[in-house]
Amino acid sequence: xxxxxxxxxxxxxxxxxxxxxxxxxxxxxxxxxxxxxxxxxxxxxxxxxxxxxxxxxxxxxxxxxxxxxxxxxxxxxxxxxxxxxxxxxxxxxxxxxxxxxxxxxxxxxxxxxxxxxxxxxxxxxxxxxxxxxxxxxxxxxxxxxxxxxxxxxxxxxxxxxxxxxxxxxxxxxxxxxxxxxxxxxxxxxxxxxxxxxxxxxxxxxxx
Length: 207
What we know:
The radius of gyration is 17 Å and the shape is globular. The chain has one domain: Glycerol-3-phosphate (1)-acyltransferase, CATH 3.40.1130.10. α4 crosses α5 (about 130-140). A 7-stranded mixed β-sheet has the order 1-7-6-2-5-3-4, sandwiched between helices. The protein has helices at about 10-25, 50-60, 80-85, 95-105, 130-140, 155-160, 180-205, and strands at about 30, 40-45, 65-70, 85-90, 110-115, 145-150, 165-170. β3 (about 65-70), α3 and β4 (about 85-90) form a beta-alpha-beta unit. By secondary structure, it is of the alpha/beta class.
């Protein structure tokens, strides 16, 4: 059985990165304690930057596996991608290959990272939610953990007190009998709305 928990080396590296981010950009995470400590989990977050997988790993205290196109697994980056939990997926083989890989990992008890918006979202341009996270949750029984990543402040904004805030929501259960493209899409749209609701809800609690 593969080792799905955080290794000592990974735990140490994560702690170092989080500490550095707190100093450099005022990193804060609200709701980290909502993360289930074990068992299959789908971590779903908004996506606006190439570094978002790293930011999600900072916010979620689980060893996360990430699907990535196989073309990026080239020397000298191959070792780094594998260390942070990325695994190659052949996009030319279609969505079934990624679905099978995701179900296998969830069946082994991993946390699987997914961006419902697909590729990173260009600022100001919204994208339709992809239904992969919903489909995987319905077929595997895994819960979905919504995560919102805020803006990373620049040096001047940081001097003015701005912080890089992230938010982890309550785990979401998807009915095992959910089926059909329309039903998947409707649930995926609601998941994306829930992700973007997280900072507003947190702000409301602070008032």
